[in-house]
Design goal:
Length: 171
């Protein structure tokens, strides 16, 4: 099981850092960045915007079990449970985050933790890459035939030295 967790400030900078750190961790694990990075960005932004309590951080946790990546964001506003809803104004710039998470994740939900915490989680299932097939055995020599040394060395000539008093330029 691979896992990564970090505490971040509930600010726009903390949400951006969550996305950047998650992207680097996914890259290190060899997992696809999309849509996981977008889900992290939305959940971290929600924690920084709606789950913010001054002086309390939010936690980002990523872990992989088998072929499933689980993303968890825990904040300290357990009294505010998120639920997806369409924005009231079609041209609104906010209000679509959980709709995106719902569309991109295979599963997602909210877990109430010990007060005052809640965890919003999302899971993505990746196809397990097939292990490379071994090369079938082949007949025949695998390298050049062995020839015992004869004791004679092949001639080797060093490059000529420059005339005395001359130097080479480095151009």
């Amino acid at each position: 099981m691979r896992n990564f967790h970090v505490l971040l400030s509930p600010t726009p900078r903390g949400a951006r850092l969550a996305r950047l750190l998650a992207t680097e961790q996914l890259r290190a694990w060899g997992l696809p960045l999309d849509p996981a990075a977008l889900i992290v960005a939305e959940l971290a932004n929600n924690a920084a915007t709606h789950g913010r309590v001054p002086g309390r951080n939010f936690r980002l946790l990523l872990y992989v079990v088998g072929d499933t990546l689980r993303i968890e964001v825990t904040d300290t506003r357990g009294d505010r449970l998120p639920h997806p809803q369409a924005p009231t104004i079609p041209t609104a710039e906010a209000g679509r985050g959980l709709l995106l998470v719902d569309a991109l994740a295979d599963r997602w939900g909210v877990t109430q933790d010990r007060p005052p915490r809640k965890t919003v989680w999302a899971e993505l299932t990746f196809p397990v890459p097939e292990s490379p097939k071994p090369n079938p055995p082949r007949s025949g020599p695998t390298c050049a035939p062995y020839a015992p040394p004869t004791g004679e060395k092949a001639p080797h000539q060093a490059p000529p030295l420059p005339p005395a008093g001359q130097t080479h330029s480095r151009e």
